[in-house]
Each structure stands twice: as structure tokens, then as C-alpha cells.
């Protein structure tokens, strides 16, 4: 190899390294937009089957109309759920604001469950000895009001952007997929289509399964707290249901808040809620999750744990939410590469015929 060839290879390597660094820098600088795009992709994948089914069942309905109908239904369902929660939450929030002076007075006097707990754990003594630090912290919170408002505005803009992006992704999905697959041979395109179908099924199964599990958790928590007469049961159950969306630690975090809230009402309620969460988490871990995820995200517990830890380290809570479906997608792709290299037969791909029913077509 002469010096000219060595110099050319060196320049190529240096160029690739610089291009990689620039790409990583670009990804870091646009990380918020990339996050919105990833979330939009997940929503698009989750709603795409409904759009395709409606487009296939109603022959006169164009795809843009089917997409619009599905998204309007999704917005209506989300709005209905919010309305169902908002009314009791507003009522309980108003009650909390009305009872707050009495609660503070009870805490100072050591009366009631909250006051007795504060007296037992010397909360008032701690507050008095650290009054300066607490005032400084509260003043810091007041100074960060502009930051909070800016974050709220960014959140609203992100929600609108995610909605529009996912809508356009579903609307243009057939053209994009057909154009992309047209770059490959028929056999390779069929293989990519089969793997993509499996990955989409994994994402859809995880999203619907996780939402269903969280809904069950929130409803059961509300029922137990309401039966025991724990105040603000709706607020606590909503927090527990939302926390349960976070894999690995979400259920424990929600249980801690629920148990503490129950103990502030009475010791009996606290013990009952503690027993409920212990039993429910065992049922969720060993019955609900295997039953719901067994046919979609087929990952062993060790892989799930490693995926969640890596996802949390990389992108925080969002990484924890996306870790399991991403790990499932990686597993599907790795298994397909392994099977193809070892000459194993490829599974059949479910396709839809013109009548709308699913048929099985063997890959070539």
C-alpha cells in the first residue's frame, strides 16, 4: 500500500469521525425536537392500525378522512377521560384549599392524625430550626415562576407538535413505506416489511398494555381509598395511576404516596392500604403484566431491568417509558438477523386482502 493510499484512508477515517461528532452534536442540540419526534412515532404506530382498518372497511372513505376521524375520536376519548377526572379533582382541590388552614392549625397544636405524626417525628422542631433555609427555598420557588411558565408554554407547544407530527406520519405512512421499500429487491422488501410489522405490534401492545395496567391500578386504588374514607381519594388515585406508567419504580412510588396519605387519616386505613398495595403489586407483576405483555413484548426480566436502567441513565423518565418497547424492537431485529444467517425459515407475514380480512402469505 503506497503512501497516497494510506493518506486517502486516513482522510476517510478522519472524515467519518468528524461527521459522527457533528451528528452527535446536532442530536444533542436538537434533543427536545428529537424527543417530540420519537413520541410522535409511538403515537402514530399506535393509531395506524385503527386508521388502516377504517380505511379498509369503508371503501368510499379516503385515507385523510379516516385519519382525521381516528384522531378526532382519540381526542374525544382523551377529553372525556380528562373531564371525568377534572370534576372530582376540582371539587377535592377546593376542599383541600378550604381545609388547609384547619390542617395547619391541627399540625401546630398536635391534633388529629397529621398533627400527631408531626409531633412524633418532630416536624415542627425541624421547621423552626431550619426556618431560614425554608424561607430561602420558598423565595427561590417564587423567583422561578418565569421558568415554570416558560416550561408550561414549551409543554403546550410540544403537545401540539406531537399531535400534528403523528397525524402527518399516519397520513403519509403508505407513501413513505412504499417508497422506502421500493429501493430494495422484492425479497428484501418483504423481509423489512415483516420485521417492521413485528416492531409496530410490539409498540402498540406495550402502549395499550401499559395504559390498561395503569387504569386498573388507578381505579382499584380509588375504590380502596374511597371505601376507607381517605380524603382526596381521586387526587391520590390519579397520581398512583400516572406513576404506575413508569416501569420498575412507578408502582412503588405511587404506593408510598398512597400509604402515607392513608396513614395521615388513620392507622387502620394506612395498614389496609399498605396490604392492598403489597397484594396488588404481586398480582400486577405476576399476573397482569405477563398476561398483557406475553404476546407483544417478549422480554425476560433481566433484559427489562437492564433496558430500564440504561434508558433512565440516558434520558430520564422518558427513557424508562420507552426502554421496554425499544428493547423489544432490538430483540426482534437481532433475532431476524440471527435466523437469516443460520438459514432458519422465516415466519409468515399477516397481510390484508381487498376484502379487509387478514390472510397469511408466506415470504418468498
From TrEMBL:
<keyword id="KW-1003">Cell membrane</keyword>
<feature type="transmembrane region" description="Helical">
    <location>
        <begin position="66"/>
        <end position="90"/>
    </location>
</feature>
<dbReference type="GO" id="GO:0005886">
    <property type="term" value="C:plasma membrane"/>
</dbReference>
<dbReference type="Pfam" id="PF01594">
    <property type="entry name" value="AI-2E_transport"/>
</dbReference>
<feature type="region of interest" description="Disordered">
    <location>
        <begin position="345"/>
        <end position="364"/>
    </location>
</feature>
<feature type="transmembrane region" description="Helical">
    <location>
        <begin position="34"/>
        <end position="54"/>
    </location>
</feature>
<protein>
    <recommendedName>
        <fullName>AI-2E family transporter</fullName>
    </recommendedName>
</protein>
<keyword id="KW-1133">Transmembrane helix</keyword>
<feature type="transmembrane region" description="Helical">
    <location>
        <begin position="236"/>
        <end position="260"/>
    </location>
</feature>
<keyword id="KW-0813">Transport</keyword>
<feature type="transmembrane region" description="Helical">
    <location>
        <begin position="303"/>
        <end position="334"/>
    </location>
</feature>
<comment type="similarity">
    <text>Belongs to the autoinducer-2 exporter (AI-2E) (TC 2.A.86) family.</text>
</comment>
<keyword id="KW-0472">Membrane</keyword>
<feature type="transmembrane region" description="Helical">
    <location>
        <begin position="148"/>
        <end position="170"/>
    </location>
</feature>
<dbReference type="InterPro" id="IPR002549">
    <property type="entry name" value="AI-2E-like"/>
</dbReference>
<keyword id="KW-0812">Transmembrane</keyword>
<feature type="transmembrane region" description="Helical">
    <location>
        <begin position="7"/>
        <end position="28"/>
    </location>
</feature>
<feature type="transmembrane region" description="Helical">
    <location>
        <begin position="211"/>
        <end position="230"/>
    </location>
</feature>
<feature type="transmembrane region" description="Helical">
    <location>
        <begin position="267"/>
        <end position="283"/>
    </location>
</feature>
Amino acid at each position: 500500500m503506497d503512501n497516497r493510499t494510506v493518506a486517502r484512508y486516513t482522510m476517510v477515517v478522519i472524515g467519518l469521525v468528524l461527521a459522527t461528532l457533528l451528528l452527535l452534536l446536532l442530536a444533542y442540540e436538537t434533543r427536545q425536537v428529537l424527543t417530540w419526534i420519537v413520541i410522535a412515532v409511538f403515537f402514530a404506530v399506535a393509531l395506524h392500525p385503527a386508521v388502516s382498518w377504517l380505511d379498509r372497511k369503508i371503501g368510499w372513505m379516503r385515507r385523510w378522512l379516516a385519519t382525521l376521524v381516528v384522531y378526532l375520536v382519540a381526542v374525544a376519548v382523551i377529553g372525556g377521560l380528562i373531564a371525568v377526572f377534572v370534576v372530582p379533582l376540582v371539587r377535592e382541590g377546593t376542599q383541600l384549599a378550604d381545609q388547609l388552614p384547619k390542617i395547619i392549625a391541627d399540625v401546630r397544636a398536635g391534633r388529629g392524625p397529621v398533627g400527631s405524626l408531626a409531633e412524633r417525628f418532630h416536624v415542627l422542631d425541624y421547621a423552626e430550626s431550619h426556618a431560614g433555609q425554608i424561607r430561602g427555598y420558598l423565595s427561590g420557588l417564587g423567583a422561578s415562576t418565569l421558568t415554570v411558565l416558560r416550561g408550561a408554554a414549551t409543554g403546550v407547544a410540544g403537545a401540539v407538535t406531537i399531535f400534528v407530527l403523528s397525524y402527518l406520519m399516519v397520513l403519509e405512512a403508505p407513501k413513505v413505506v412504499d417508497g422506502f421499500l421500493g429501493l430494495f429487491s422484492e425479497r428484501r422488501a418483504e423481509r423489512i416489511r415483516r420485521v417492521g410489522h413485528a416492531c409496530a405490534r410490539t409498540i402498540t401492545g406495550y402502549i395499550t398494555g401499559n395504559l390498561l395496567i395503569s387504569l386498573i391500578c388507578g381505579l382499584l386504588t380509588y375504590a380502596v381509598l374511597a371505601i376507607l374514607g381517605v380524603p382526596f381519594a381521586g387526587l391520590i388515585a390519579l397520581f398512583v395511576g400516572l406513576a404506575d406508567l413508569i416501569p420498575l419504580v412507578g408502582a412503588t412510588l405511587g404506593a408510598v404516596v398512597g400509604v402515607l396519605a392513608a396513614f395521615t387519616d388513620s392507622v387502620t386505613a394506612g395498614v389496609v392500604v399498605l396490604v392492598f398495595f403489597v397484594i396488588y403489586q404481586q398480582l400486577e407483576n405476576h399476573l397482569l403484566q405477563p398476561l398483557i405483555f406475553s404476546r407483544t413484548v417478549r422480554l425476560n426480566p433481566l433484559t427489562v431491568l437492564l433496558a430500564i436502567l440504561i434508558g433512565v441513565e440516558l434520558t430520564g423518565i422518558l427513557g424508562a417509558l420507552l426502554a421496554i418497547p425499544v428493547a423489544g424492537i432490538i430483540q426482534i431485529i437481532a433475532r431476524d438477523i440471527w435466523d437469516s444467517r443460520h438459514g432458519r425459515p422465516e415466519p409468515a407475514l399477516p397481510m390484508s386482502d381487498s376484502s379487509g380480512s387478514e390472510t397469511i402469505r408466506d415470504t418468498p
